[in-house]
Amino acid sequence: MAAGPTGETGAVGEPGETASTGITATTDTTGTTGTTGYADILRAPSAARLLAGTLLGRLPNATAPIAIVLLVRAAGGSYSFAGALAAVYGISNAVGQPLLGRAVDLHGQPRVYIPTAVLSALGVVVLVTVGTGVEPLAYAAVIVSGLFTPPLEGGLRALWPSVLGREERVHRAYAMDAVAQEVMFTAGPLLVTLLVALWSPGTALIVINAMGVLGALSVALSEPSRVWRSAPREAHWLGALRAPGLLALLAAFLFVGVALGSITVAGVAYADDHGRESVYGWLMAALGLGALIGGAVYGAIRWTGAPERRLRAIVALLALGYLPLALTPGVAAMTVLSVVAGLFLAPAIACAFIVVDRHAPRGTVTEAFSWLVTTFGVGAALGTALAGPAVELGGTAASFAVAGGGGIAALLVLLATQRVLAVPGSRSNATPGKENDPSEAAEPGFSSGHQA
């Protein structure tokens, strides 16, 4: 099926689209489904290297909170100080991702990835070498480490069109990214605890960050990363944030992040109620399994219709999956409910990146992707903060209710802004490797040669 005017396969109004939902699915005419479809992607030149390098490069980000807490506790510091350090790291990372994403759009990936990866790792070296005894220096070290974390996730999404070519392969790659993230965020903390058991928290932090530098270097030195260039962009201080559709999506995914972040605290409370710490691991593993299944199924389907409509349906199912968790049944039933709750997370993330690609102003694709990553992370931190008081005020069920409430809020935002989201931005990546609209027309107000 030919790409529509915005570059999305199966644009609104094409035959086979259900007018009420816009999420009609068809079997993939390439004959690749499930894991075979992902294998087809990974056989593309440099694809496996880019995915592996990105996951390895993002390992420090996935493990920093638990690694920092373990480091502080091993030095005799309080949980309050450990939590504050981890929070400062998270905030710094949230600030740095879109700013560095804009730098990538302006200057290319290698010129940003290599120095920032080294600076981020040096921040950790300072933290481990000097220790946590001098609190101002410890805070400064985690700020540097978080702020200069290279925007590898957004950068990978920007590379897929030039690497994979066909649009349906790019969309499947977005789903594969979401699945791979679930694996990383599950395996990363386990790797940290293993390294701590073998050596020490400080050694674990240095080893993880050294791996992160190697991952960033692997991506930055690859041919697709070296030759990739963003399209010219209009000089505007808001950058990607001047697109109303992108703002609407970010607002929705702030609440998706709230839902996911609250489950971390709610799961601990549930485990405490049942007197077994292992219960928490079971619940988190079940959520990850659900996300893996959901992402694999989503990536195996060749979707038609507008992705904005599809995203509303997926987020609605995501909210419905979170709501039953507030029932807090027995461990076996709760584990099953956790699998169901995780089913629609990876599809929601994958579809959201497609929508970002359609609404981001020309020349801002890495920055726009990074804003989604940042907003999701801020929402998760907010959900963690909300779930704590919820446990104290209303018990475990109330903390799980925060997750359901976050899902509902995300859906309401998407419903309230559907008019804005119905009008994609003036540029798309319909032509592989080129960030422009199919008509090659510059967006209104575009000033050639000026960038911001």
Report the average pLDDT across residues: 81
Q: Strand count, sense and closure of the main sheet?
A: 2 strands, antiparallel
Question: Spans with pLDDT under 50 lasting ≥5 residues?
Answer: 1-33, 426-452
Approximate strand percentage? under 5%
The oligomeric state is single chain
Helix percentage: over 70%
How many alpha or pi helices?
Answer: 17
Total number of β-strand segments?
A: 2
Radius of gyration: 21 Å
First-residue to last-residue Cα separation = 36 Å
The ordered H/E elements are EHHHHHHHHHHHHEHHHHH
Which structural class matches the secondary elements? mainly alpha
The backbone outline, from C-alpha atoms, is globular
- The strand line-up of the biggest sheet is 1-2
Secondary-structure topology with pairs:
Elements lengths: L24 E2 L7 H9 L4 H11 L1 H16 L4 H29 L2 H21 L4 H13 L4 H13 L2 H32 L2 H20 L2 H5 L16 H30 L4 H23 L1 E2 L3 H16 L8 H12 L2 H15 L5 H52 L1 H4 L31
Helix pairs in contact: 1-12, 2-7, 2-9, 3-4, 3-8, 3-9, 4-5, 4-6, 4-16, 5-6, 5-9, 7-8, 7-16, 8-9, 8-12, 8-15, 11-12, 11-15, 11-16, 12-14, 12-15, 13-14, 13-15, 13-16, 15-16
